């Protein structure tokens, strides 16, 4: 039965009793780790000698690979010397989720074991990775969860101009004035003085009780 693909975390902890090819001083070991077509390199343990310490973790995408190849080298000026190699399996870690290995280091020339590497493995299948991502997304803040494309803006009909833009109706005092009213009635003026009557003519007699007008006979 094929194992599920996932991510294998490989922690290179330390080396113990490695071969030391330097005559003077201590060697400076580092490791090159390969799984399939993926390769990582640890930092150099300066003056690590036969017991270098790295404590570095590397994550490999694993599909069908089950073996890990490691080269241990001594960093020198010019060409780096090969200290030894080791190979170990990922099968137990992929089945149980984790594993700790003391992988024997073999000398290239003599093919004899010269010390070992302490390595910790941790396995995360793709299903677990997806569920962890979904759980993280569910607990993420609201503004981080939504990555939707904003809808296009709504098209609004042109609003009519406000009422105050229209010309106000003419007030009442702008209307044409009403026709002139005769405020004064024709003045009643007293009759003009009576002209002298020709001889023989008699003025009209006043009504009884009338008061004679001065100047008239």
**Shape assignment:** elongated
CATH architecture of the domain at 6-129: Sandwich
Q: How many beta-strand runs?
A: 8
Termini, distance in Å? Answer: 161 Å
Order of helices and strands: EEEEEEHEEHH
Percentage of residues assigned to helices: 10-25%
InterPro entries: C2_dom (IPR000008), C2_domain_sf (IPR035892), Ingression_C2_domain (IPR052981)
Can you offer a commentary on this structure?
Helices cover 11% and strands 33% of the residues. The protein is built from three helices and eight strands. The strands form two sheets. A four-stranded antiparallel beta sheet has the order 4-1-8-7. It has a four-stranded antiparallel beta sheet with strand order 3-2-5-6. The longest helix has 13 residues, at 126-138. It is mainly β. It has a domain at 6-129: Immunoglobulin-like. It starts with 5 loop residues before the first strand and ends in a 72-residue tail after the last helix. A hairpin with a 6-residue loop joins strand 5 and strand 6 (81-89). Pfam families: C2. InterPro entries: C2_dom (IPR000008), C2_domain_sf (IPR035892), Ingression_C2_domain (IPR052981).
How is this fold's topology laid out?
Elements: E1 6-16, E2 29-35, E3 38-41, E4 53-62, E5 67-74, E6 81-89, H1 91-96, E7 98-106, E8 113-125, H2 126-138, H3 142-145
Antiparallel strand pairs: 1-4, 1-8, 2-3, 2-5, 5-6, 7-8
């Amino acid at each position: 039965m094929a194992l599920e693909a996932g991510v294998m975390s490989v922690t290179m902890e330390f080396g113990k009793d490695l071969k030391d090819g330097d005559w003077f001083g201590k060697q400076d070991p580092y490791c090159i780790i390969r799984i399939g077509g993926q390769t990582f390199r640890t930092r150099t343990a300066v003056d690590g000698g036969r017991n270098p310490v790295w404590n570095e973790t590397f994550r490999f995408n694993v599909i069908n690979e089950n073996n890990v190849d490691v080269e241990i080298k001594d960093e020198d000026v010019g060409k780096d010397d090969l200290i030894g190699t080791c190979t170990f399996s990922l099968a137990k870690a992929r089945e149980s989720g984790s594993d700790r290995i003391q992988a024997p280091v073999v000398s290239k020339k003599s093919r004899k074991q010269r010390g070992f590497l302490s390595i910790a493995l941790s396995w995360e299948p793709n299903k677990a990775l997806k569920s962890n991502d979904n759980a993280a997304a569910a607990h993420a803040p609201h503004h981080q969860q939504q990555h939707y494309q904003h809808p296009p803006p709504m098209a609004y009909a042109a609003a009519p101009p406000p009422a105050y833009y229209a010309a106000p109706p003419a007030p009442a005092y702008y209307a044409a004035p009403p026709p002139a009213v005769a405020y004064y009635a024709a003045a009643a003026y007293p009759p003009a003085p009576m002209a002298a009557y020709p001889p023989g003519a008699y003025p009209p007699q006043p009504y009884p009780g009338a008061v004679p007008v001065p100047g008239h006979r």
